[in-house]
Design goal:
About 35% of the residues lie in helices and about 25% in strands. By secondary structure, the protein is α+β, with helices and mostly antiparallel strands. The strands form two sheets. It has a five-stranded mixed beta barrel.
């Protein structure tokens, strides 16, 4: 039993392991700018960075990408596009705020000085997320990608991810009620 207690103590109080499972990233990074390495890409708008030796989740500001879960069309393409833009790189992060899941909401600039958030919209891999962003630059980038039928805009009527999530959520609730 002593070894188990020691292992638990190390996992909870070691600065590296203890913070990994913590509910919040290190300190309050709201409105901060820093560099970090992209160590994982979860989907087209969510990644994990390594900052001060602590893995921290980050969601790209201003955009919403097709869902990987539920196999939304272009969901895998969006993840690949984001990986191509920044995976394994030391990037500059401009934190705007935290979301309700305590992920950083940020704008990311890669080592080619590309604003990754904007690149995702330009490449037709993301929508301008107007519910949370009023930035006219993103609206213009989306209109241009739509007009040129780039990426997901090749589809005649692509479903925005917020509607996709809503339909998947309501269909799973219907399935539960019918059982």
């Amino acid at each position: 039993m002593g070894r188990l207690n020691l292992l638990i103590f190390i996992l909870l109080f070691n600065p590296v392991f203890g913070n990994y499972w913590a509910a919040t990233p290190i300190g309050d990074l709201k409105n901060h700018t820093f560099t970090a390495k992209v160590i994982r890409v979860m989907d087209g708008d969510t990644m994990e960075i390594l900052y001060q030796n602590v893995p921290t989740k980050l969601r790209l500001a201003h955009i919403d990408c097709p869902e990987k879960r539920g196999h939304q069309p272009f969901g895998n393409n969006a993840k690949i596009a984001l990986s191509d833009l920044c995976f394994g790189q030391l990037v500059t992060i401009y934190v705007e705020k935290y979301d309700r899941y305590r992920r950083l909401i940020a704008v990311v600039v890669n080592n080619k000085k590309q604003v990754v958030n904007q690149e995702m919209v330009k490449r037709g891999m993301a929508w301008h997320f107007k519910k949370y962003s009023t930035d006219p630059l993103y609206a213009g980038l989306e209109l241009k990608a739509r007009k040129n039928k780039i990426g997901l805009w090749q589809d005649a009527a692509p479903t925005p991810p917020w509607l996709w999530r809503k339909s998947k959520h309501s269909s799973s609730l219907s399935e539960k009620k019918s059982k």
